[in-house]
TrEMBL record:
<protein>
    <recommendedName>
        <fullName>MaoC-like domain-containing protein</fullName>
    </recommendedName>
</protein>
<dbReference type="GO" id="GO:0005739">
    <property type="term" value="C:mitochondrion"/>
</dbReference>
<dbReference type="InterPro" id="IPR052741">
    <property type="entry name" value="Mitochondrial_HTD2"/>
</dbReference>
<feature type="compositionally biased region" description="Basic and acidic residues">
    <location>
        <begin position="577"/>
        <end position="598"/>
    </location>
</feature>
<dbReference type="GO" id="GO:0019171">
    <property type="term" value="F:(3R)-hydroxyacyl-[acyl-carrier-protein] dehydratase activity"/>
</dbReference>
<dbReference type="InterPro" id="IPR029069">
    <property type="entry name" value="HotDog_dom_sf"/>
</dbReference>
<feature type="compositionally biased region" description="Acidic residues">
    <location>
        <begin position="609"/>
        <end position="659"/>
    </location>
</feature>
<feature type="compositionally biased region" description="Low complexity">
    <location>
        <begin position="599"/>
        <end position="608"/>
    </location>
</feature>
<feature type="region of interest" description="Disordered">
    <location>
        <begin position="558"/>
        <end position="659"/>
    </location>
</feature>
Amino acid sequence: MVLPSLLRQTRRLVLNTPPRPALPSRSHPVLLRASLARVWRWTSTASAAAAKESPAAVEDPADLSLDPEISEHLKTLPVEARQLLVRDYPVIQEYLAPTQSHLLTLTLQPYLKFSDIAAPNPQEKRTLHNPFTIKNILPVYGQTLPPGFHLAYFNGYTQESDLSADGYISSQGPGGDWTRRMWAGGKLTFNSMPDKRRKGYDRGARRGRPLDIGRRAICHETIEDIQMKGEPGSDNEMMFVYIKRKLWGLGYIVKEPTKSPKLIGEVTTSEDDPTVILPDEEVPLVEQRCLVYMKPKPVEKDVPPMPKNNITTASKSRADKAEFSHNLTPTPTLLFRYSALTFNAHKIHLDPTYTKQNEGHKDLVVHGPLVLTFLLELLRNHTLGLEKEWKVNSFEYRNITPLFVNEPINIYGRLIPDAPVPERIPEEDPRERLPPMYDEMDALRKLLKQLTVQKTAGELTEEEYDAKRKPARKKLRALKSESDKLEKFHPVEQREIEYKVYELWAENDKGQIAVRGTALIEDLPQKAEMTPEQQWKRYQAELARNKRLLQKQALRSHKEMIREKKKERKSKLRYAQMERERVRRQQKEDEWKSRRDGAVAAGANALNENEDEENDESWEVIEGEEDFSDDEDLSDDGEDFSDDEDSKYDDDEDSKPKK
């Protein structure tokens, strides 16, 4: 890592990294621009690892039994820096939704004229009010994020209580008196992620998937190193914190993260396990950041201003050396929208009063990542006009002076023709592994013969013979299978990759260089013209593929038809059963009603019959009494009662029964 050398004013921008073990299919990083002299710098991994392994390194690094250089480096760091070295950060899981990338595109469009975006039709009424009517602007699922667009993702899940008084994430800062923060520089390394593993070369290596739209992704963040600049203990002392972030994709490309096959009852493999941290060469993007922390600005005293003759500019304008350029003027709206997209609440980008009074700046400060995105977009739009297709391999930059809102920014770029290019390292031939495999297979065959002889002689029991024979035969079968594959292997001719080195920089309205960086781009493989034989073979392969697809489609349609018929039959049976149940219930209800009506009618008839019988009996009694009285009258002495008519009728009325 060479970020500290970028921060030196007396050194030119370099990109010099030591060779690292990588898969043969990837190019190795080399020196892009020759430096005047190689400056040895402290490697961060040793000090950071030593501080994490031993908790005593935070309190007293002199008591550690470490390398003297490591101990001496830890001694120069304040307590806040040593505590920051041992701090662990959680793995950030993100879903690369197309909305975030689309909003960033809409935010940058008024300031950078994208070549791949068609301007809207001004005569269409809805175009001016609906940004989604712009053609070819929505990202497609499976499309890789453009360089710099990853900054809109992987910003952590923090609440307001997790922020510092200045508005940035407090977990990334040392705390204490180090409250002011600025973006000092960084480096982006884009590793090539092949579409599929090549047989014989990769040997089952695990690679992270590309950062494609619609894919789940992982960000692993660590503190690599901390460097101190300035006089120790003074107000001008600065702490440079070097952060390393590795980003890679997981799983499949899905339109909704909850419907990913990896999330629905499927066992997660080590390749898609977010807890497994992949090495640098196995991830599509490695980002290195340099953040500088400073102490609060002291109260200004009555100091006479310096004469103008002693004031020197940071850098002179290099606009005459540029081959392509673009100018823009950032507005407060741009800063606000970019802060919202990156989940950044740093007050120097949002609050002008705080920026002027507490930070001492004249106005709002433009984001360092925003300027980085401008430079990458300038390079991307320039490469679109070239004959071949190009991709960014790496980009290393350094922030020299801040840029402010409402001030013009000029961004430039030029090709460095004399820059060295990476050397192509020949890939290892997998067939070179065959001789030692043959020797091992011969040794296993001899061992099996020896075991058979010992068993025949009675030196080994049946259990001992099986215990030694089974693992040997299993290993022999595995070696035989691998050797057969290697014997049929045909090496693929390596493609000559063409590299170009570009220098990009941004200047303010005074011609001072604010940001400067170097980018390495490589060409993408072109589609070669096929011969008639190759075209015929491809045509036959397409026919066979289409035939298989048609067969699968017909089988799928047949299964779907059978499934629909079964479903329809079940529904008919269910409806018929429901109808029979309804009829049975209706018949039962009608039968119950008829029985009820019959019972009611029978009860009413019985009641009427009883009343009629009672009436008949009463009338019979009355008639009997009348006959008996007549007999008495006839047997009487001849007395005549006909003269007393009133008494006769009264007696008749009293003798009638009452109902």
